[in-house]
TrEMBL record:
<dbReference type="InterPro" id="IPR029045">
    <property type="entry name" value="ClpP/crotonase-like_dom_sf"/>
</dbReference>
<dbReference type="Pfam" id="PF00378">
    <property type="entry name" value="ECH_1"/>
</dbReference>
<protein>
    <submittedName>
        <fullName>Enoyl-CoA hydratase</fullName>
    </submittedName>
</protein>
<dbReference type="GO" id="GO:0003824">
    <property type="term" value="F:catalytic activity"/>
</dbReference>
<dbReference type="InterPro" id="IPR001753">
    <property type="entry name" value="Enoyl-CoA_hydra/iso"/>
</dbReference>
Length: 266
């Protein structure tokens, strides 16, 4: 196991990264502010994503947080500074940096999994929704949060909600101030699975281990999935053609000798 910053270091950065057996872990490390994302954190998240893009030995990513809360959104100090002149170049740069951080996570070439404990609000919910799979505790609170702060959603929040839960739940959350528990989020399709915190790492590991075992194949599957499912999604016939060449590549790589009467790969 390798870690860029050992836990317990005298002065830890607000984002920790770790790379172990083909799985990269990004940990928000700003627990005193419920892991609210500031400009420094956004830059570190971008650096992490750059490594994932270039390191083809990584097959899966986990996004998590220290403390008892996943992410309370953008740092309110940055929001306050931007509110003085929201159209200024500096304000646009500030908000774009925070939103750009989770857009980068959403475009990574490997499966991404968020581990949500406590809650995710506003831009924090955006970050969780940007991942491909969201694991939550049953009691976690998933809250749009923008309405309560008296501001319009940002960062493509409505689109992220809409593709996960549809029109009615998007309006209930974003325009009417509703919130979902982790259990409710799984039932609505917003989260993939709910489990007690003590079980989350094991459940996540069940998915990351196979993806990390063959990063090259995993990345090609993810590329095809993004092309086929979009948005916008393509037709079945188009999907067939997208998959044809990549499947031929995988079969050539596997080779005839690796097939046996006991089944594929045995």
């Amino acid at each position: 196991m390798t870690s860029d910053t050992p836990v317990g270091a005298p002065s830890e950065p607000p984002v920790l990264t770790e790379f172990t057996d083909g799985v990269a872990t990004l940990t928000l490390n700003n627990p005193r502010r419920k892991n609210a994302i500031n400009l420094e954190m956004a830059a570190l998240i971008d650096d992490f994503c750059r490594r994932i893009d270039s390191d083809t030995g990584i097959g899966a990513v986990v996004v998590r947080a220290t403390g008892e809360y996943f992410c309370s959104g953008a740092d309110t100090r940055d929001l306050a500074a931007s509110s003085s002149d929201p159209a200024s170049p500096e304000a646009v740069r500030r908000t774009s940096a925070v939103y750009g951080a989770f857009v980068r996570v959403g475009l990574l070439p490997v499966p991404t999994i968020s581990r949500v404990v406590g809650g995710a609000v506003g831009a924090g919910l955006n970050l969780a929704m940007a991942t491909d799979l969201m694991f939550v505790t049953p009691q976690a609170r998933l809250d749009s949060g923008f309405l309560a702060r008296g501001i319009h959603p940002g960062g493509g929040h409505l689109a992220l909600l809409g593709r996960a839960v549809g029109w009615s739940d998007t309006i209930a959350l974003a325009a009417c101030g509703g919130a979902l528990t982790g259990t409710e989020a799984v039932a609505r399709g917003l989260a993939y699975r709910a489990a007690e915190e003590s079980e989350l790492d094991a459940r996540i590991g069940e998915l990351t281990a196979p993806a990390a075992a063959d990063p090259e194949l995993t990345r090609r599957i993810m590329s095809s999935a993004r092309l086929e499912l979009g948005p916008p999604a393509v037709s079945w016939s188009s999907a067939l053609e997208i998959e044809r060449g990549v499947q031929m590549w995988s079969m050539s790589r596997k080779g005839q000798a690796s097939w046996s009467s006991r089944g594929p790969g045995r």
